[in-house]
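User: Structure with zinc ion, tokens only please.
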Amino acid sequence: MLKTILHKIGEILQRPFRESFLFLIAFFFLATSPYFFWHPMYVQGFNIYILYLAIHCFVLSYLVTLLVCLIKPGKVRKIVQGALIVLAALLFAVNFYCNFALDFLFDADIAMLILGTDIHETKEFASVMLPKWIILAVLGIYLFFVILWLISRQHHLNLGKKASWVALGVLCLCTALSIRNWRAWEDGPLKLIDELSNIESSDDLKSYYTHPDITIIDKSQMPANVVLIIGESFARVHSSLYGYNKPTNPDLGSYRDSSMLFTFDDIDAPAPTTAQSLRFMLSAYAQKDDTDSNKKKWFEYTSLIELMQDCGFECCWFSNQARGNKHNSTARAFAEVCNKHWFLQQEGSDRYNVTSDMVLVDSSYQFVNHLQPQGHHFFIYHMMGSHYDFSMRYPKEFAKFNENDYPTEPQSHRALLASYDNSILYNDYVVCQIINLFKDKEAIVIYVPDHGQVMYRDPKDPDYYAHGKMNDKVRYSLGVEIPFMIYASPLYQEKHPETMERIKYRQDHPKAWNSDDLPYLIMDLIGVKEVNGEDVKLKSVLD
Ligand SMILES: [Zn+2]
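Assistant:
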């Protein structure tokens, strides 16, 4: 009796192999392969976790096929099968394009871009960035499956009885492995369904827009491109631009030597941690407003994004930091009020936090090169920079410093110091690559990290190297010392000689300034005179 029941169950479970094997394979390949094969391989090379993702995708495809097999009558089953394959084929094409042209997979951002009101711009974006080989490759793969399908109509491509039992055994093993590595379910294609069903309205900060009164000196003089590069955990004392004894900033140094880049000394970040610092730097919310008695929240203040949009700038946010969720990410709140935003780091898994900052350059390269020549653009690049773990922030080629380079430091500090300096060196390279995207345009580029890093300089705790602390005076002041620099392209320099004089003067005559007032500096740089009747120069570092 039990044997017959088990046999019956076995037969039902074998149906995907014996009746819809081609569907199973096609679904596995078209709908799920981007998630375990190209994209993770493309981003981080082969590793064992990719196998787990593949196993998870196989189990998922099997479950879908099994459900389809159970549909009755046969006609409905065929319609459902056809519809699923068409959807899988479309997802495949979109993923193929996103991966090979843009370096990321189809996600809620792209869906929003497509679904959003910006349909014209979406088309434009796709048309300039759709290489012909991608169309041909996708069509070729479609053709392959069509041929297989035609063959299957003559000769069944299903597995036989014995092979199906073997396949069922393999499937059980895969299911066990998949359950053991539960995490894979969060990184696979199910993540997309979860994301799409959670698309939230992105106008949170927008509902707090303050509609400031802005006085512009001469609109025709506004620069075409303003670029803000937000770095991560960069302690000024580790920069060769500021006298550090190791060559951590060779590329930026040569820009400074040729008077394209200007560095300012005596600049502090408004807070020693990322979220706090961004709130201050990217809005009119200031340190003095951060009191218990002030009931007005940070997001009720005018944001830099709103100011730029009011001045006619299209705002684009490229991030290699985690998107976070609605409740824990300040960066996300700012990014989502930008006209466009991309979170390029693979999320959901710590295994992916190794996405190199070069993804920012690779992903925006095409976009920046196909800008409307008459428009004004504000780009924000949010880097992973020197975020801990430092040793994961740079590729092997940039491991220039090693323990032996720190003979006067305690032995236990040397490896970490070396990896920190290597991350600064790689940061130097990436920042220059971002700058290079704009060197032939009229552009002004500001680089400012969110905060510094203590790096073993706290005398009462010489082993402490992490972020500064809000409630510890010494660690606070060490943690907010940051480098600050402005790059001006030749076209910008030619068009704005007066501003250039002020920038050069400030480089040679440092003034204590806090990047809390960043919005006023940017307003000053683009030729705004007043915001709500307040002279922006009073808070700009240039005056
Ligand atoms: Zn940070």
